[in-house]
Automatic annotation (TrEMBL):
GO molecular function terms listed in the Swiss-Prot or TrEMBL record: copper ion binding; oxidoreductase activity
The protein's name: Copper resistance protein A
Gene behind this protein: copA_2
Plastocyanin-like domain residues: 52-163, 172-347
Gene3D superfamilies: Cupredoxins - blue copper proteins
GO cellular component: a single term: periplasmic space
């Protein structure tokens, strides 16, 4: 799969597309735009998958990707609910590999997580996955070995329902989003460990300082800069990795290649969105079309019509659209506003519609980082206890807009002084978060959010009050009644903790190798509450192989261990 687009050509293309797009629907060289075929679709109950290396050219420079059956992404796998399927996975790499079936209910030894559910697939070996399909919907699969997912080992799963679905449509398209870098992912991670904001090129400037003075006043601007400077944090760090190194793909196609999904005017089109990226949150809209969300993470929800939705890493959404014109742009901008993936819904190949400009970059606030409504009042606090803090590119709430000069240093962060702060006196204060004792004086914990809340009605930073109807988690309500109906017998509370500089993540400050198992009882119904104690937007991927989950809120699940 060759994409012959240099970064310079890509940027020129964006300019040209903006000019041409202003003229409405326009045509261009269909051969170049569709030079990459849509990933193959495999159906049935027997599948042969081979993981190997494939030369790709996405940015103008050839690189070796790790692929499934030679494709990036891998083939779309289409199963039927109730079938028993067999997948033979052959490893042609010179390193261990694996495939994890994301969100699929199956036996633990079929889950594909090396060191946890099986030993991995060694070079030249074949592993046979066999399990009964107990669900339907939109899912995906990816490697769980090293950083292979970033290198291309991922693909979509469609499971056709055994019973009629609660909505109608005439045709469907898979829209798989991902991020690609020409860099070796291990080198990329090494850079982040040395300087967490390495890829943040939207840091505060002198010019932005004076613009802020003009709009907010000198005193407020200085107080704000002082607060961030004393904390050694940066309010423009929304994403660890930005469009500086990433090219954002839609079904394996870079923006200029313009992946195209065909339709006939008046049809109802089901779009199965999958975020298969390694690091990127996307904000998705189709200018000129409303989207009716009918499923989330493979589960039917009551229909809700929106203009835009945010999709976190590993999430899936199914939406229905009803296009009447000739062409519509599917626009998926990264949350930090440093780039986008883009494709087209069109009545014929070779058409394109206007590509909207990126939205303005937002700015982090104290509340976004779990510090409550402290805002600028923090400027008057004694920050000496927080003196070692600095920012992490993983603070994915705002890869910056033109930001006032905070005098932020790129020196290594040290949040240890904040992690060691005595929060016990704050625990009884309204809205203040209590933390497990295992987080205190813990070298694996360099930050603690003081105030956390579900925020189910919050569309997220950069999407608030933007003039469009944006999906929130509060909008997602199950299409069907709870078939179990029991109240949970107990609650397990887990706190996500971490050290941003070391990229060390844990629950309750305890690394995996030291953590005792979470014991469940067969057949019980329990609630698991997940609390993000970090100061970053972080997707929880919470899986218990063979367990049945019913999502109640963003941070609370009911689990039936059957």
């Amino acid at each position: 799969m060759l994409l012959k687009t240099s970064r310079r050509t890509f940027l020129k293309g964006l300019t040209l597309s903006g000019v041409a797009g202003s003229l409405g629907v326009w045509s261009f060289n269909a051969r170049s735009s569709l030079s990459l075929p849509v990933a193959a679709s495999l159906q049935g109950t027997q599948f042969d998958l081979t993981i190997g290396e494939t030369a790709v050219n996405i940015t103008g420079s050839e690189r070796q990707a790790k692929t499934i059956n030679g494709g990036l992404p891998g083939p779309v796998l289409r199963w039927k609910e109730g079938d028993t399927i067999t997948l033979k996975v052959k490893n042609r790499l010179n390193e261990q590999t694996s495939i994890h079936w994301h969100g699929i209910i199956l036996p633990a030894n079929m889950d594909g997580v090396p060191g946890l559910s099986f030993m991995g697939i060694e070079p030249d070996d074949t592993y046979v996955y066999t399990f009964k399909v107990k669900q339907n919907g939109t899912y995906w699969y990816h490697s769980h070995s090293g950083l292979q997912e970033q290198e291309g080992v991922y693909g979509a799963i469609i499971i056709d329902a055994r019973e009629p679905e609660p909505f109608a449509y005439d045709r469907e398209h898979v829209v798989m989003l991902s991020d690609w870098t020409d860099e070796n992912p291990h080198s990329l991670l090494k850079k982040l460990k040395k300087q967490s904001d390495y890829y943040n090129f939207n840091k505060p400037t002198v010019g932005s300082f004076f613009r802020d003075v003009n709009t907010r006043g000198l005193s407020a601007t200085i107080a704000d800069r002082k607060m961030w400077a004393e904390m050694k944090m940066n309010p423009t760090d929304l994403a660890d990795v930005s469009g500086y190194t990433y090219t954002y793909l839609m079904n394996g196609q870079a923006p200029l290649k313009n992946w195209t999904g065909l339709f006939r005017p008046g049809e109802k089109i089901r779009l199965r969105f999958i975020n298969g990226s390694a690091m990127t949150y996307f904000d998705i809209r189709i200018p000129g079309l409303k989207m009716t969300v009918v499923a989330a993470d493979g589960q039917y929800v009551n229909p809700v019509t929106v203009d835009e939705f945010r999709i976190a890493v590993a999430e899936t959404y199914d939406v229905i659209v009803e296009p009447q014109g000739e062409a519509y742009t599917i626009f998926a901008q990264s949350m930090d506003r440093t780039g986008y993936a883009r494709g087209t819904l069109a009545t014929r190949e070779g058409l394109s519609a206007a590509v909207p400009p990126l939205d303005p970059r937002p700015l982090l606030t104290m509340e976004d980082m779990g510090m409550g409504g402290m805002g600028h009042d923090m400027a008057g606090m004694d920050h000496s206890q927080m003196g070692g803090m600095d920012n992490s590119g993983e603070m994915m709430s705002m890869d910056g807009a033109d930001l006032p000069d905070s005098g932020t240093s790129s020196a290594p962060m040290d949040h240890s002084s904040m992690a060691g702060m005595d929060h016990s006196r704050m625990a009884g204060m309204p809205g203040m978060q209590s933390h497990p004792a295992s987080e205190t004086d813990n070298p694996l914990v360099d930050m603690q959010a003081m105030s956390v809340s579900p925020k189910l009605n919050d569309p997220g930073i950069g999407l608030r009050n933007n003039g469009r109807k944006v999906l929130t988690y509060a909008d997602l309500k199950s299409r069907f009644e709870d078939p179990d109906g029991r109240e949970p017998g107990r609650t397990i509370e887990l706190h996500l903790t971490g050290h941003m500089e070391k990229f060390a993540w844990s629950f309750n400050g305890i690394k995996f190798s030291d953590a005792a198992p979470v014991l469940l009882k067969y057949g019980e119904r329990l609630r698991i509450t997940l609390i993000n104690d970090t100061m970053m937007i972080t997707p929880f991927t919470c899986m218990v192989c063979g367990a049945i989950w019913k999502m109640k809120t963003v941070i609370s699940w009911f689990v039936n261990t059957q």
